[in-house]
Design goal:
single chain, alpha/beta, Beta-Lactamase, Rossmann fold, 7-stranded mixed sheet, 6-stranded antiparallel sheet
Length: 362
């Protein structure tokens, strides 16, 4: 069996088990993530350095393989013979290649199908500003953003430009015209791409990740000049993203950045995936901060700790805290109540939230 056929056979086995992720490493059996848990597939052969090196060579082109050897890691997209699409990170560990493979659901699901809050639809209707989707790796940020971009694509005659590393979801022109640029293949880096975007007449920009100071600065400028910019950051709560972003800038620039952010930030959505006890699959839990004049003022005056109170009192505007989102999932019987208590940031107040929801209060 050729190395490519062998690699494809592992992908097929993972697809049959509905695995979200695949890990391939030296002297280990292929390991699949099933409903959030890693399970080693002992019925598949253990892998060797020779096999792993072979996999790397057959799934990369000459440019990618050279980059992998020089930088010791690389991100790329791969489409199997079955038409399934994957995001792959190849890296070295103990001198041997290892692969982390994420299956990308090529079909676009509505927010309702993904069990995402209906107020996220409003984000697709925004005309300008910055929207951030945050959360840990593997929390579904890319899927949520792809659904929002698809909603715009289906409903608005505009120009959408995505900048990704790699391109994960393949969009096709519907109501909108959409162009997708891949880091390393179409442009050198995120900051170069978003600066160039100013000359490409976009209405909506999807920036896969704000990795560095230069990219953050360019994204803020794009949002400030009338574009609608979506991007991601790795933070675990909606309020923390503000300090994370502002804190990335030098001290003497932070006051100006805070002022700039207060004017362009429209919403922050933090997403976690929860696996219900004794059940398969995972349920999204979304903390949502919708920025209004009160929140803008708190950002500008460096009072992020007071934003939480605005979120609690502003549910009619679409705000919801992490604990409130959890309580909704308990009410919907998607998460057991005791599990919600364990995951809540304020367990005692969480119980009261659940009681209010069960009684019909918001």
């Amino acid at each position: 069996m050729s190395k490519l056929a062998y690699f494809e056979s592992i992908l097929t086995a993972a697809d049959q088990l509905q695995s979200s992720d695949i890990h391939l490493s030296d002297h280990c059996h292929p390991t699949f993530r099933l409903s959030g848990h890693l399970v080693e597939q002992t019925d598949l052969d253990s892998l060797t350095p020779e096999i792993l090196h072979g996999f790397c060579k057959v799934i990369t082109d000459d440019r990618q393989y050279k980059q992998f050897v020089e930088h010791r890691s690389i991100d790329l997209a791969f489409t199997s013979k079955a038409g399934l699409r994957y995001r792959i990170n190849i890296y070295f560990e103990r001198g041997c290649p290892a692969l982390a493979i994420r299956w990308l659901d090529g079909s676009f699901h509505s927010l309702e199908e993904l069990r995402l809050p209906k107020q996220l639809l409003k984000l697709a209707q925004l005309k300008d500003g910055l929207v951030l989707v945050t959360g840990a790796t593997g929390s579904g940020k890319s899927t949520t953003l792809a659904s929002i971009i698809n909603e715009i694509n289906e409903t608005r005659p505009c120009h959408i430009l995505t900048i990704e590393d790699p391109v994960e979801f393949l969009h096709h022109n519907k109501q909108a015209m959409i162009h997708q640029r891949e880091i390393g293949r179409d442009v050198n880096c995120f900051s170069d791409a978003i600066r160039a975007a100013m000359r490409e007449d976009p209405d909506v920009i999807l920036l896969g990740e704000m990795r560095d100071l230069e990219t953050m600065n360019a994204a803020l400028m794009a949002a400030e000049t009338g574009h609608l910019v979506f991007s991601t950051l790795h933070t675990n709560d909606a309020i923390g993203v503000i300090d994370r972003l502002v804190g990335s800038f030098p001290g003497e620039e932070q006051s100006g950045v805070r002022q700039q952010l207060s004017m362009v930030l429209r919403a922050v959505v933090t997403q976690t995936l929860v696996r219900p006890d004794n059940a398969s699959g995972r349920v999204p839990v979304n903390e949502i901060l919708i920025v209004n004049s009160a929140v803008s003022n708190l950002i500008r005056n460096h009072k992020p700790e007071q934003i939480y109170s605005v979120m609690e009192s502003g549910r009619a505007l679409g705000n919801q805290t992490h604990d409130y989102a959890l309580a909704i999932r308990v009410k919907e019987k998607l998460i057991p109540r005791d599990q919600g208590v364990r995951l809540a940031r304020k367990p005692h107040a969480f119980n009261e939230l659940v009681n209010q929801l069960l009684k019909g209060y918001n």
